[in-house]
């Protein structure tokens, strides 16, 4: 079941690879595929615990897999930035790009996801799982980053914010009703 | 010498005959007039292409566009615009000129003739392409309109017609304020590079590329090159262009391509040429420094970005 989930989640990447040859703006296409993938999976990673509270279905065993998939997409997204967009020009990256709020906001979100991915193994997770609440911050920053990336926010940006608000709202509601988060 | 290309001459005669008929008033004839298929091919003087630029393919240029009147998506306007009626189409010329008037695109073509200009095109978003435009330089039109001494700027407006452009019918939910407005200083407008395009690759412009008539200012970011023109006005004060109105911190009036001045959100030193997975350096004034740098002598281009 988990294997199927991974396969399904990686499908857009396969499609992007297939389309790369004929893409009109390949770097932008890769940015979009990996960025949309990371945010969508990040939102999906919040679904299992909401689902358990709201409808009693337990999908918590998939949460880590979805989270790691989201990190994988975010990692590729950052790789596109470093390797293709900046062409490993670290001077420009540090002197110019990272000064721009839109980029450092995204970088902070990525660092949070990186921390969560590195501490997702059993031993470390037992010790550090309480810090995994930082996913909410990562999500908020990622949403801001996706909004900022556009000249004018479109359907996708508004949709993910709406879904994000529902998922975060459910957590606030559960917390106020003293249900375990 | 002004020789009207034969095809245009014939088309015009056809048009005039039908027009005369329509005046006598028969709905059948006006129907026929409306349905007359537009001859899409153009006769023009080819660009000798001294810079040896290789144009992007028609497929690339016509399938990757910013045309927010249809959608903020780069590919959606292609589908959304196919039914757009771009003929007949008149452009209004108003403001501080000798005679305010309206002229059909076909009349403009006959009046000024057509030539090809293979230009680099650089979007503020960081992508670029090379386009073989067909049209005429704006100064020819301005010479004809005879702006008076009060005319310091030229203001351009995109057609406002919600039946053509879906985003214009969305009211407060529109992606940008409509109609789209752009402007040039008179000396910029009169620069020989500044071009009014009606076609590319030997054919009329497709709707998604700003049919039937648009501006092309090759040394400025693409958003200055306003599409589907409705009005050209010669005015006294600097027009507030749409993107400056939306966010003056990020988009100025001049919008000269400048690798040394970053956009607040992304660097401008390199660009992605459409179709390429590698990047190339962006040139000052998009490679037209020799022709236009003098227009900005003494100006701080960080301030006037």
Automatic annotation (TrEMBL), chain A:
Span-the-membrane segments of this chain are 26-44, 65-82, 102-121, 133-149, 155-174
Species of origin reads Sulfurospirillum multivorans (strain DM 12446 / JCM 15788 / NBRC 109480)
One family from Pfam that matches here is: Ferric_reduct
Write down the PANTHER family for this protein, in alphabetical order: PROTEIN-METHIONINE-SULFOXIDE REDUCTASE HEME-BINDING SUBUNIT MSRQ
Write out the GO cellular component annotations. plasma membrane
The UniProt GO MF terms for this protein read: FMN binding; heme binding; oxidoreductase activity, acting on diphenols and related substances as donors
The entry's localization annotation reads: Membrane
Domain Ferric oxidoreductase span(s) in chain numbering: 34-142
The name under which this protein is listed is Sulfoxide reductase heme-binding subunit YedZ
TrEMBL record, chain B:
Report the domain of life of the source organism.
Bacteria
Enzyme Commission identifier(s): 1.8.5.-
User: Sorted alphabetically, which keywords does the UniProt record give?
Assistant: Oxidoreductase
Query: Is Iron among this UniProt entry's keywords?
Result: no
Q: Where are the transmembrane segments?
A: none
- SUPFAM superfamilies assigned to the protein according to its UniProt record, in alphabetical order: Oxidoreductase molybdopterin-binding domain
InterPro entries in UniProt: OxRdtase_Mopterin-bd_dom, OxRdtase_Mopterin-bd_sf
- Protein name, entry field: Sulfoxide reductase catalytic subunit YedY
> What species is this protein from?
Sulfurospirillum multivorans (Dehalospirillum multivorans)
Print the organism lineage: Bacteria, Pseudomonadati, Campylobacterota, Epsilonproteobacteria, Campylobacterales
């Amino acid at each position: 079941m988990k294997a199927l989930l991974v396969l399904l989640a990686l499908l857009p990447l396969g499609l992007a690879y297939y389309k790369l040859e004929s893409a009109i703006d390949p770097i932008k296409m890769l940015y979009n595929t990996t960025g949309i993938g990371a945010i969508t999976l990040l939102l999906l990673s919040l679904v299992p615990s909401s689902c358990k509270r709201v409808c009693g279905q337990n999908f918590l065993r998939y949460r880590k897999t979805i989270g790691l998939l989201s990190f994988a997409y975010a990692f590729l997204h950052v790789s596109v930035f470093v390797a293709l967009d900046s062409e490993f020009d670290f001077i420009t990256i540090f002197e110019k790009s990272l000064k721009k709020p839109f980029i450092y906001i995204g970088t902070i979100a990525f660092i949070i996801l990186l921390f969560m991915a590195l501490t997702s193994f059993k031993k470390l997770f037992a010790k550090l799982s309480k810090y995994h609440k930082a996913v909410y911050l990562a999500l908020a920053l990622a949403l801001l980053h996706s909004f900022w990336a556009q000249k004018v926010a479109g359907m996708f940006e508004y949709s993910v914010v709406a879904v994000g608000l529902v998922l975060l709202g459910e957590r606030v509601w559960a917390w106020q009703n003293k249900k375990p988060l | 010498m002004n020789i009207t290309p034969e095809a245009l001459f014939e088309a015009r005669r056809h048009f005039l005959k039908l027009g005369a008929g329509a005046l006598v008033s028969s709905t059948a004839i006006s129907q026929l007039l409306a349905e007359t298929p537009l001859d899409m091919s153009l006769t023009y003087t080819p660009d000798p292409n001294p810079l040896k630029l290789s144009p992007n393919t028609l497929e690339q240029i016509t399938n990757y566009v910013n045309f927010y009147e249809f959608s903020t998506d780069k590919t959606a306007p292609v589908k959304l615009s196919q039914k757009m009626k771009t003929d007949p189409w008149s452009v209004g010329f108003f403001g501080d000129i000798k005679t305010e008037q309206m002229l059909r695109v076909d009349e403009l073509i006959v009046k000024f003739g057509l030539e090809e200009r293979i230009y680099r095109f650089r979007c503020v978003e960081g992508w670029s392409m090379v386009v073989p435009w067909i049209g005429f330089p704006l100064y020819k039109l301005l010479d004809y309109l005879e702006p008076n001494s009060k005319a310091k700027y030229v203001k351009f407006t995109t057609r406002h017609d919600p039946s053509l452009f879906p985003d214009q019918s969305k009211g407060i939910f529109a992606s940008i304020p409509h109609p789209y407005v752009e402007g040039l200083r008179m000396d910029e407008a009169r620069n020989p590079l500044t071009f009014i395009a009606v076609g590319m690759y030997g054919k009329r412009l497709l709707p998604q590329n700003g049919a039937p008539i648009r501006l092309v200012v090759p040394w400025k970011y693409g958003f200055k090159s306003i599409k589907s023109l409705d009005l050209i006005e010669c005015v006294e004060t600097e027009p507030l262009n749409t993107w400056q109105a939306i966010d003056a911190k990020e988009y100025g009036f001049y919008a000269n391509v400048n690798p040394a001045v970053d956009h607040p959100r992304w660097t401008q030193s390199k660009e992605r040429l459409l179709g390429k997975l590698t990047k190339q350096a962006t040139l000052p004034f998009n490679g037209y420094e020799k022709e236009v740098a003098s227009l900005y002598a003494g100006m701080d281009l960080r301030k006037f970005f």
